[in-house]
Amino acid sequence: MRTDKHESLRYCKKCLLVELTDEKALYDIIRDQISLMDEDKRSSEDEYARRLAICETCDHLNRGTCVQCGCYVELRAAKRHMNCPCLPAKWKAV
Questions:
Q1: What is the pLDDT of residues 1-38, one digit of tens each?
Q2: Who's near 18: CB < 8 A, 6+ residues apart?
Q3: First to last CA, the chain
Q4: Cα–chain-centroid distance for residue 57?
Q5: pTM of this structure
Q6: Domain span at residue 37?
Q7: Domain count, the chain
Q8: Which of 78, 81, 89, 91 has fewest C-beta within 10 Å?
Q9: How far is CA 43 from CA 23, 80, 93, in A?
Q10: What are the distances in angstroms from CA 26 to CA 23, 33, 74?
Q11: Coil, strand or helix at 79
Q12: Cβ(30)–Cβ(70) below 8 Å
């Protein structure tokens, strides 16, 4: 969150959960879910980082969720069989 002297409290729409201090508990739950995934179903660390970098620049990212489908992008990006829900998809299943 950021504040200005001349503006009311605003939320960062372009943030992932990991960057939102008020969503730390939720981020920890999602990280736990990712760690429990079978390795063959989980994206590689490089692919995961690439997908999240794309999501961070997307207009559909809102406080860690994708407004196209309602998913938590950190969880969706971790699943190797998932595509980006945008049309056309900004990243594809591997």
A1: 444 444 445 556 667 777 776 777 888 889 999 999 99
A2: 27, 74
A3: 34
A4: 11
A5: 0.78
A6: 1-94
A7: 1
A8: 81
A9: 23, 4, 9
A10: 5, 11, 11
A11: strand
A12: no
